[in-house]
Design brief:
- The structure is a single chain.
- The chain has 266 residues and is an alpha/beta fold.
- It has a single domain, classed as Rossmann fold, CATH 3.40.50.150.
- The chain is 39% helix and 18% strand.
- It has eleven helices and seven strands.
- A seven-stranded mixed sheet has the order 3-2-1-4-5-7-6, with helices on both faces.
- Helix 1 runs parallel beside helix 5 and helix 4 packs parallel to helix 5.
- The longest helix has 17 residues.
- 40% of the residues are buried.
Length: 266
């Protein structure tokens, strides 16, 4: 089963890489745009990245790998898709940084053990069915005291679930968004585990894209489109983001959010 899943994931992401212009990839925006709450949260927890060794699992087009490298980190970028790894390395060259690129599944990482200060895995855990093996691999890669950070969608929000059912051409069919039980699984492998949720009432931005801008979910990846927004274009949305900073801390209600950041220490 995993072989066929890996094949589908590889083909899908290879095609995505082939169809993407390097100049259209938003590197700084993915961490600095008003909508980049998850990455801003993670950056604050990471602190100064100069000289840090970072493993970026499921790195995709390479925005995160290149950004971390621009901040002074030594970055290893890993993806199941050869096309994505090649794109990430070329994106680094475009921005004047050098990445180490490795083609590998997340469940069988070909990286040194006890080596990395941070492991960053964004929008990838929900593509992996064998999560115990994944977390063991992450733990092995981290140095003692190292920390992993992940960003993934949650499976409970009905609006997002409708969106997923509509966006069939821009996502793979094997995705399994995270649920409460995944937190308990993480705690089996890491210490000091925490989580923070993002995007609840601020998800109205997705409804705007569909109802007002008339952009079908298959025409543009909403989760990428958000990084092209500015504070000027989002004047109406910024108060919703502020409200979410309170709502996404409430028990149970927080699980209706779109995304979850999880972290833990080896």
């Amino acid at each position: 089963m995993n072989d066929s899943l890996h094949h589908r994931e590889t083909e899908f992401h290879d095609e995505w890489a082939r169809s993407t212009d390097l100049n259209d990839i938003n590197v700084r925006e993915a961490f600095e745009a008003p909508t980049a709450m998850e990455n801003k949260f993670i950056l604050k927890m990471m602190g100064d990245l100069k000289g840090k060794r970072i493993l970026d699992i499921g790195s995709g087009l390479g925005e995160s790998s290149v950004y971390f490298s621009l901040m002074g980190a030594q970055v290893t970028t890993v993806d199941i898709s050869p096309g994505m790894v090649e794109t990430a390395v070329r994106l680094g060259e475009l921005h004047g940084v050098k990445l180490e690129g490795i083609v590998s599944t997340a469940e069988d990482l070909s990286v040194p053990k006890d080596h990395y200060d941070f492991v960053y895995i964004a929008n990838a855990i929900h593509h992996v069915p064998d999560r115990p093996t994944l977390f063991r691999q992450i733990k092995d890669a981290l140095r003692p005291g190292g920390t992993f950070f992940s960003i993934d969608p949650i499976g409970y929000n009905p609006v997002i679930n409708v969106y997923r059912n509509m966006a069939t051409e821009v996502r793979t069919p094997d995705e399994e968004p995270l649920r409460m039980g995944d937190i308990q699984l993480v705690k089996q492998y890491f210490k000091n585990v925490g989580h923070q949720e993002f995007w609840l009432v601020s998800l109205l931005l997705f409804l705007k894209y569909y109802l007002i801008d008339r952009v079908h979910p298959n025409e543009d990846r909403y989760w990428k489109r958000i990084f092209r927004e500015t504070s000027g274009s989002l004047w109406w949305w910024l108060p919703l983001r502020g409200l979410d900073s309170l709502l996404c801390r409430l028990p149970l209600l927080r699980w209706w959010s779109w995304n979850i950041v999880i972290w833990g220490t080896k």
